[in-house]
From TrEMBL, chains A, B:
Keywords associated with the record: Aminoacyl-tRNA synthetase, ATP-binding, Ligase, Nucleotide-binding, Protein biosynthesis
Recorded family membership: Belongs to the class-II aminoacyl-tRNA synthetase family.
InterPro entries: Aa-tRNA-synt_II, aa-tRNA-synth_II, aa-tRNA-synth_II/BPL/LPL, Asn-tRNA-ligase, Asp/Asn-tRNA-synth_IIb
Region Disordered, annotated ranges: 27-79
Keyword Amino-acid biosynthesis annotated: no
Pfam families for this protein: tRNA-synt_2 (PF00152)
PANTHER family: ASPARAGINE--TRNA LIGASE, MITOCHONDRIAL-RELATED, ASPARTYL/LYSYL-TRNA SYNTHETASE
Organism: Trichoderma guizhouense
UniProt domain Aminoacyl-transfer RNA synthetases class-II family profile: residue ranges: 130-470
Gene3D superfamilies membership: Bira Bifunctional Protein, Domain 2
Taxonomy, superkingdom: Eukaryota
Protein name: asparagine--tRNA ligase
Protein's UniProt keywords contain rRNA processing: no
């Protein structure tokens, strides 16, 4: 993320323009602090070409530096770099017309950068966000490998719509007849297929694209997003599933702290002297709150677990604070979730926000596949499920134990007003195959799904999920 | 993959039926070779419940074993196991009706198992294939992390159809108007988007679902498949791209050899005495040929690289062997590719099949974005591209240098009869954004795409790609 300082003789510097891709050959010199720009740089009309280096020097004797010059800023305000490249040779690999280059040498709003998503990752912050995304994928892969979870590729084109809730996209081919005989959809959740795989492979996970045709225009929703889903087999106690979620997130956050992208985001925010960049950092969540989030994620303390019924009891005395009244039997509103996360999750001792688990919601407001709780409260029947809540964002993940007994699952379908497929239709375009999983040896099992983009937004303090994915897709927007 | 031998007293064994999920508690005993089944097992009507263990014992003092009993076979022919579990307690976690359980206690054809894709992974071979798939994902993630490539999530819903070739699926929402304003498609290749990301992040890669609405009913095609794509920035020599492809595949194959799934597939094939399983192994490629493949993939030798023009010269003297005449200017047919792979790739010294690179194809039969060769042969203009060919399967991967100069790319579009978008339309539903990448600092770059399912098919010797994915989708088939 940091710029590289290159000292280039005037005679060589003419074609180094903002946006250009150049190869600079030279020798690294450690430079002492100097606020006076070297003469060769002054020759560019008072501008210093700051290179967003596409390849990092991998040893101290690097003598060739390839870079795409993605932005140029006035030098006077920049922090001294610890090394500079004294350039003896310049090769322009890809020229650039600075008059038309859309990434201007000044602050640009996130909204305006979204209109040029094919160029947006060239800005230092956006580039670093995508590198952090990459680091997160590598760390999750390592985590689950060590935990002996099998990574799987559940299908993207599916017959069913997981919870009957999401509006699914339809998949069509150019032909006159249905390509797959029946109408097919883009997956809204991999859970049902993961359950099939967990029966065979033991614990499984996936990080897969997921789709919802919702027209909601919020900072938390995308039409195409990545879900991290895990399913544990032979598990009877939901605490084990919540333990996994905490262990995974703690491992991820600790791992990220050791890698460069997260480190750079944190440090560079403090030492950047480029006014445009400082303004861009202002768009992110306050650094103090960000640190509270990270301390909570990596805390050795067990994250708080309260039941939905307890949560309602916490909310009711402060009902006046909310637009919606907290009532047992209704879903928690976003305002309720945020209050709970801040109230219950804040750990004074370490000044940290611990994510909180809210468990055992009323059966009627949750999905049909969830297992009934053994000891429901007097208010009504609940299911063994949990939502993982964090301040500001609300729900980060949701999970449950799954009803693994055939008769009870069929009852649940009826209770939710859904059709109970017969065994004869098992392979047709309905849920027969999912019931099949209960017919022959279904152990108790459970799992969770976590919005990966939302998690990255929480980790980086980027307020809008559209800015942590390379090419955001949402209602009326699908550029490139 | 191997069965676990459990000795269960008659009084406890009544409900242990094929397909059931059970928890067995007991003590491990090392058992000496014995072809005589223990009395407790005889009590199940001469059948031994062989457990496909869902969790592996992780130390020698494991005393609790959870398993899904997915198949039962006559014991008499089984190899002695090295340890057996003397069971003191049996808990049926999920019962099973053996009368209706679709996975029969005999050989079932791959085709018949495909009709029950939600249960298929319960068979030992299919389970092991999916574990190998998982191992491969973890190893690739590690490889690219070490090579400092950034893993990316290019979009699945896109505006463009990569090569104008593939028939793309259309994405629709339930509403009356277009959800994204313009018609959108499921991606047929992530390459163009990877190029945008490579400009910003340096070297990038992805393992993403990819879609083609082709009606071809072959053992090598799926409508939904996974492509491993890598794009290298600041690369001027295509040899570097081919070096990466070889290094990656060698690293993957070496890594797999150290992990259990690949080891089990190889060993169990030799020592399985279960007649049904031996027949299932017969469906795979001959073990000798499989070893030749693996020796080639992990060979320290540089894989052969021949130009298309040289390939035609090799093919022409043996033209009588082919249905299609090898002619300069026409594409290589599958029969040509297989001949070349076997002829050029076979390394006598090590009895190995080295994959081969065929490079510099005629420009007219390749995609518009490929870079013209600097020294084309007298026969006509060629481009800097390569196909990676292996015996039996043909093309495993394809790559190229990309035309990084704007004017030449526009010429290429015209040459291929494609519309050249103007800059004004850059953000609309055409290729304007892709041309934009050449306007402002486009370094020389190149990359490749590899069919991940096809690779797994090559590695495991499974003849049909439909059997290395959990839920295959192809023309008229999209079960579950």
């Amino acid at each position: 993320m940091r710029p590289v300082q290159a000292v280039v003789d005037k005679s060589l510097a003419a074609d180094i323009r903002p946006g250009a891709a150049v190869r600079l050959t030279g020798v690294w010199h450690s430079s002492s602090s100097s606020s006076k720009p070297p003469p060769s740089v002054e020759s560019q009309g008072g501008k210093l070409a700051r290179s967003s280096v596409a390849g990092q020097p991998n040893s101290s004797d690097v003598h060739e530096q390839e870079a795409a010059v993605h932005s140029a800023g006035a030098d006077q305000g920049l922090a001294p770099t610890t090394a500079e490249l004294r350039v003896s040779e310049v090769e322009i690999l890809g020229s650039s017309d600075p008059q038309t280059y859309p990434i201007q040498n000044k602050y640009q709003t996130p909204e305006s950068l979204r209109a040029i998503s094919h160029l947006r990752p060239r800005t230092p912050i956006n580039s670093t966000l995508l590198r952090l995304r990459s680091d997160a994928m590598a760390l999750l892969s390592q985590f689950f490998f060590q935990e002996r979870f099998q990574q799987t590729h559940p299908p993207i084109i599916t017959s069913s719509d997981c919870e009957g809730a999401g509006e699914a996209f339809t998949v069509k081919s150019g032909g006159t007849t249905e390509f797959f005989r029946d109408p097919k959809y883009l997956t809204v959740s991999s859970q049902l297929h993961l359950e099939a795989l967990a029966q065979a492979l033991g614990n499984v996970w996936t990080l897969s694209p997921t789709f919802r045709a919702e027209q909601s225009d919020t900072s938390r929703h995308l039409s195409e997003f990545y879900m991290l889903e895990a399913e544990m087999s032979f598990v009877q106690d939901m605490d084990e599933v919540m333990d996994l979620a905490q262990r995974m997130l703690a491992s991820l956050a600790s791992g990220l702290k050791r890698l460069s992208a997260a480190q750079e985001l944190e440090k560079h925010r403090l030492d950047s002297r480029d006014p445009a960049e400082r303004l861009a950092f202002e768009d992110l969540v306050d650094p103090k709150e960000l640190q509270q989030r990270w301390r909570g994620l990596t805390s050795p303390k067990r994250w708080p677990r309260v039941t939905y019924t307890e949560a309602i009891e916490i909310l009711q005395p402060v009902a006046h604070m909310f637009e919606h009244k907290p009532v047992w039997g209704s879903g928690l509103q976003s305002e309720h979730e945020k209050y709970l996360a801040e109230k219950i999750g804040y750990d004074e001792e370490t000044d940290a926000f611990l994510p909180i688990f809210v468990t055992q919601y009323p059966q009627e407001i949750k999905a049909f596949y969830m297992l009934q709780s053994e000891s429901p409260p007097p208010q009504g029947q609940t299911v063994d499920c949990f939502d993982l809540l964090v301040p500001n964002l609300g729900e980060l993940a949701g999970g449950s134990m799954r009803e693994h007994r055939l008769a009870q699952l069929e009852d649940n379908l009826r209770l939710h007003g859904l059709e109970v497929p017969t065994q004869r239709k098992a392979r047709s375009n309905d849920m027969g195959w999912y019931l099949d999983l209960r017919r022959w040896g279904c152990p108790p099992h459970g799992g969770f799904g976590l919005g990966f983009d939302r998690l990255l937004s929480y980790l980086t303090g980027v307020p809008n999920v559209r800015d942590v994915v390379p090419f955001p897709r949402h209602f009326e927007r699908c550029d490139c």
